[in-house]
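Per reviewer request, we include the raw input and output of the structure prediction for the construct analysed in the revised manuscript.
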Amino acid sequence: MKADISPLLGPDTLLFTGYDDDYIRINDDRHGTGLCLHAGRITAPWGPQRVRELSIEHLEAIVADPPEVLLIGTGRLTAFPSAEIMDYLADHHIGFECMDSRAAARTYNILVGEGRRVSIVMLLPGARR
């Protein structure tokens, strides 16, 4: 018996379709900077060059319309933002996960396929801590 288990996604669904150290591709658009994908919109360029430079101001739009989960793509290696940032997200009841940018892109696509309300902020995959 054959079954199609692929998710039913609309044609306007934004998904990661490629990346390298110096770019991120969402659908057919290539971005050479870090970006934020939130509430169905891409903001690029977005944010800091390194996760340690992430500030509350970078996250204000996300907090204003909170997702179920926020993925933080931290570049080449997994890193964590300051305690101030983690406390800020927790205080606003936003679940978050930090992971390298390549893993974050794949995880985002999976969560979108499951119908989850997810947002992502991404440093370029080649970004260093």
